[in-house]
TrEMBL record:
Species in which this protein is naturally found: Carya illinoinensis
Keyword Oxidoreductase (UniProt): yes
GO molecular function, one term: oxidoreductase activity
Name the UniProt record assigns to this protein: NmrA-like domain-containing protein
A Gene Ontology BP annotation from the UniProt entry: secondary metabolite biosynthetic process
Length: 349
């Protein structure tokens, strides 16, 4: 029996998915992946006007087949009606930190709707029951743990997605580092730079998340993303980028105390990111435990025939975005035909 034979192929086209927070950073990857599978995909959008960027995201997803529904997840009556009327099977939440506890009302609505076969709450990071960041990141994890306990008490089937870090340069003071190219002036190295972490491209997070929603092996489990091809420490990350740009950049140490001080400033969201950076690259929260418990599964073992986008490939994409005035064409070095092609594309842009 193959690894993929546990999944019912028919469910991929009939499972009705509601995504909450689809216009956010992570939600867009999940929504795109759901639409690619051909599942009926519904997006919950806040009533009233939205920002131009969110409106553009909604229109883009709608053009690809998404069905837009209006409502708020902390409105139990409205959510019950939506879930029942549209016979939603799976709810995926990708709401931001300020709305984490709004999911408690959503859970109550799902309990009474009678349609829900799986709930994926807003996780998409570390295993919040194992990681232990300093404040203010700890407060977010406490909220996420509270949501987990509420789901488990409700009896709603669930899957927790623990995808670790986004494949990008991990700036400690930026909310979404994958939107920013790696450094061109100097590297900030956290501690001694030897603590490793797992990096996953956003499209892969979306792809593998959608594989789990009707896989019986992920029912009531934590699904961990640990691609061995993307296990890097910060020094290795810096060396990879230096190869791409053909330059050696100075390295400046950001000490543990520096990160703790940035976290203690309590500037939101920068201090939350600093607290997570400390947990990852000083305390090693992604690698300091084994996933051998009965509630843990690893995505590469579940889907051994599927490949991950490598961090090397992701850095090729960043290379395309680099300002060509900052790096002259003859300084660019590439390590593969794909990288060479991307360098040529960047030069022509």
């Amino acid at each position: 029996m193959t690894a993929t034979s546990f999944v019912n192929p028919a469910a991929k086209s009939t499972c009705r998915v509601l995504i909450v927070g689809a216009t956010g950073f992570m939600g867009q990857f999940v929504a795109e992946a759901s639409l690619l599978t051909g599942r009926p995909t519904y997006l919950l959008v806040r009533p009233g006007s939205v920002s131009p960027s969110k409106a553009k995201s909604i229109k883009n997803l709608q053009d690809k087949g998404a069905i837009i529904l209006h409502g708020l997840i902390n409105d139990k009556e409205v959510m019950e009606k939506i879930l029942k009327e549209h016979e939603i099977d799976v709810v995926i939440s990708a709401v931001g930190g300020a709305k984490i506890l709004d999911q408690l009302t959503l859970i109550e609505a799902m309990k009474t709707s009678g349609t829900i076969k799986r709930f994926l709450p807003s996780e998409f990071g570390h295993d919040v029951d194992r990681a232990d960041p300093v404040e203010p990141g700890r407060a977010m994890y406490i909220d996420k743990r509270r949501v987990r306990r509420s789901i488990e008490a409700s009896g709603i089937p669930y899957t927790y997605i623990c995808c670790n870090s986004i494949a990008s340069w991990p700036y400690y003071d930026n909310t979404h580092p994958s939107e920013v190219v790696p450094p061109l002036d100097q590297f900030q190295i956290y501690g001694d730079g030897t603590v490793k972490a797992y990096f996953v491209a956003g499209t892969d997070i979306g792809k593998f998340t959608m594989k789990t929603v009707d896989d019986i092996r992920t029912l009531n489990k934590c699904v961990h993303f640990r691609p061995t091809c993307n296990l890097y420490n910060i020094n290795e990350l810096a060396s990879l980028w230096e190869k791409k740009i053909g330059k050696t950049l100075p390295r400046v140490t950001v000490t543990e105390n520096d990160l703790l001080a940035a976290a203690a400033e309590n500037r939101i969201p920068q201090s939350i990111v600093a607290s997570f950076t400390h947990d990852i690259f000083i305390k090693g929260c992604q690698i300091n435990f084994q996933i051998d418990g009965p509630q843990d599964v690893e995505v590469s073992i579940l889907y051994p025939d599927e490949t991950f986008i490598t961090l090397d490939e992701c850095f090729n994409d960043f290379l395309v975005k680099v300002d060509r005035k900052s790096i002259s064409t003859d300084e660019i070095t590439t390590t593969s035909p794909m990288a060479e092609s991307m360098a040529i594309t960047a030069t022509c842009a």
